[in-house]
Structures are given as structure tokens and as C-alpha cells.
Amino acid sequence: MRKCRLNFWLWGLILLLLAADPAHGTPVFKSEAQVAGEYITLGHLADLDPELQQKCGAALIWSAPPPGQLYTLTQEFLKFRLAQMGLAGFFEGVPLPPAIQVRQTGVLLSGEEVAKTFRRYVQEHNPYPAANLLIEVFPLEEAVILPDAQVTLEALPPRSGKLVGDVNLEMVVLHGGQTLKRIKVSGKVRVERQVVCATRPLKSQEIIGPGDVQVLRRDVTGLNAGEFFISPDQVIGRTLCRNVGPQEIITSRHLSHQPVIKRGDEVTVVLEQDGLEISTKGVAQEQGHPGKTIRLLNPKSKKEFQGSVIDAKTVRVKL
């Protein structure tokens, strides 16, 4: 059982009030008591008149038993607690039963309901679609006991705004529209997406070809949206600056940012019209990366035209 925290200054004030106004009924301690919460109070154990109940009925005796269990508070323990709180003199002469059986009538907060509220909040406020989220909710560190099961949970926005990775949410437990308590709930949120991966081991300085990549569902929790690719066309023709393992996600960190075509390079120009293709030669007038449109020069006619970079040796022109 957890040791109850007592405010001795407060109880000293209560004793002064009691001494100043002795007109109260004699308390009667019970042999059996019921609690619906986390603590056993003096008001649970004894019948007190309204004035006395208001003044010291909330005095904490001990932690309440879990639902379905029974605690036995002995006469010696009760005397010890009354003395510890400074109330022994006031209860002098009041008969104490040999023991008081204390039963818990409250119910445990449903872990399933906590997890459901956590998942719903993360899904509704996450920038990623719910189908891409894998949400794990950790059990509460301590059991939460409620007066009854008629409660609602409301998740509050996290201070960090973080809803991916390690996520911590604070929830308010409401009963009849009133706040009973606040609890902290932790979990882990992972994001999965269809992303471009390598089909085989690829080495640094290799140029990525169509057969080198495939789209697979992978965990991208630790990656920013601009670091991975969702279409093979985004990486085909690019040069690698580091090795990539088979089925590994190809990220922007794997790709060289050096241009694949430099000014003055002679390249193959693929002219495309109505499904027909004709190849010719051209000279790059500026550097280019795959997918970028660059200016080229026809070495025979000396006329400039534009084309889209395919790889280090090829530029496509659609007529």
C-alpha cells in the first residue's frame, strides 16, 4: 500500500477548530466500511456528525484496496494513524473495534477504453492517413479506480505537438461532466508507406536503372516526407553516392547531388512523336539532373532545343 501524504499544518488547524467548538456528536466507528476511490478516509470508517464530517472526514487513513479485494485495518493501526495525524486526543475515549474490514466498491478504468481514446485522437489529428499508422498503447503505470463505469475520456493536445514516434498524451477523466482526474498515457506510433526500395545490392556511383527498384510497404517513421520516394521515376537515372542493400529504402541521402550531365557533354537525344522514336546527337548547353529540362545544341544545324534528362547519356525530346 502506498503511504498517504499528509498536510500536518492543515490538520493542526483542524484541531484548533475542534478545540474551539466542542459541540459535536460522539463518532461511532464501523466494523465494516466501503470505499469507492483510491483512498480510505476517516469519513469512510466512522459515522460523524455533519460538522465533524466537514472538518476532518476527508482525513486520509490509507490507500484503498483494489476492486474485489478486502483490507483489514486493526485497532492498533487506527490508533497509530490517529496519533500520526494529531487526532488521538480528540478521539480519546471513543471505542474502536478490534478491526475494520474495508471493501472497494469502485471499478477500474478500462485499459481498452484508454487505448481506444488514444488511437482515435492520434488518427484524427495525424497528417498521415489512418491506414498508414501502426499504434501501440502502453498500459497505465498505476490502476485508476473510479466511482463507477459511467465516465468519458478526453485526450488533450500534446505540448510537443508530436504524434509520430514516442507519443505522450494527457487525458481528462470526466464523470457527469466534472473532472475526476488527469492521467498520462504513452504509446508508440509508426508510419508505413509504399516507398521505393532497391531490388538488389547497389553500389556507390551506380546509376539506378528500371530493374533496380521496386515499390514496397515500409516503416518510414524516422524519415521526413522529403527523404523518401513513392515512384520509381523519381530515382531512375540518378547516381548513388552510397551503397544500398536489397529491399532497403532508397532515400535522398543515397543519391548524389552532382549533375549527371555537364555543360559540353555529348548526349544521345531521343526524339519521340506519336509513339515513334528517333535517336540523334546533341551537346548539353547546361548541367542537368534526371527529370530536369535542359538546353541542347544540334551540332549540325547549330540550333538550340530543350529536352528532359533521362540519365548521364540520354535526353528525351517530345515533339
Automatic annotation (TrEMBL):
Keyword Ribosomal protein: yes or no? Answer: no
Q: Where in the cell is it found?
A: Periplasm
Record's signal peptide: 1-25
Taxonomy, superkingdom = Bacteria
Q: Which UniProt keywords apply?
A: Cell projection, Cilium, Flagellum, Periplasm, Signal
- Gene Ontology BP, a term: bacterial-type flagellum assembly
InterPro entries associated with the record: Flagellar_FlgA, SAF, SAF_FlgA
* Residues in SAF domain copies: 193-256
GO cellular component labels: periplasmic space
* NCBIfam families, per database record: flgA_cterm (TIGR03170)
Q: What's this protein's name?
A: Flagellar basal body P-ring formation protein FlgA
Q: Which organism is it from?
A: Desulfobacca acetoxidans
What would be the name of the gene that encodes this protein? flgA
